[in-house]
Write a structure and sequence with these properties.
Blueprint: H1 5-19, E1 45-47, E2 50-60, E3 72-83, E4 89-91, H2 93-96, E5 97-100, E6 106-107, E7 121-123, E8 128-138, E9 145-148, E10 156-159
Antiparallel strand pairs: 1-2, 2-3, 3-8, 4-7, 5-6, 5-9, 9-10
């Protein structure tokens, strides 16, 4: 009995694809930031060419122009980013930072910008940037960490409590 060409072609494709990507050396597992002991406030954390440090953090109810929703608060983080590279490092607090909890909740930057504001943009080679970044989180958030997620490379976390 003659097999249809389409089925034979699919079987051959599956066999070829199954053989691709295999290697004799075991692949190293990437460890997640939660699997390691997280550094805390005041401890610099390296992520590629940059070092991120949370100097302090505090809860806030905002100001005359911006207040958190009922049952929420702002967490204001005094953040420093040190670029050890020779080229500029594009940094965006909106894109690269969030507050995360062990339960998996993630909170992005709030539309509250307490002074001194973190200067988003290009951090020059061998330069630093420092300022406040705010996040709106539940009042009863409990344990939380600041997560820095660079465009390339692994995310790092700094425990805030």
């Amino acid at each position: 009995m003659k097999k249809p060409a389409g089925i034979c072609g699919m079987i051959l494709l599956v066999i070829l694809l199954a053989g691709c990507g295999t290697s004799s050396a075991p692949r190293a597992e990437k460890s997640s930031p939660a699997a390691k002991a997280e550094p805390g406030v005041g401890q610099p954390v390296e992520a590629g060419d940059v070092t991120v440090t949370v100097h302090t953090w505090a809860a806030s109810q905002g100001d005359d122009f911006s207040t958190p929703a009922e049952g929420s608060q702002y967490i204001v983080v005094d953040l420093e980013v040190d670029n050890a590279g020779t080229a500029g490092y594009p940094f965006s607090t909106m894109v690269m930072l969030s507050i995360v909890t062990p339960a998996g909740y993630e909170y992005s930057q709030a539309m509250y910008f307490p002074e001194p504001k973190f200067p988003n943009g290009d951090i020059p080679g061998s330069g630093k940037a420092r300022g406040n970044v705010a996040f709106e989180v539940p009042v009863n958030i409990g344990t939380m960490s600041l997560q820095f997620s660079p465009v390339t490379g692994d995310s790092v976390r700094i425990k805030l409590q």
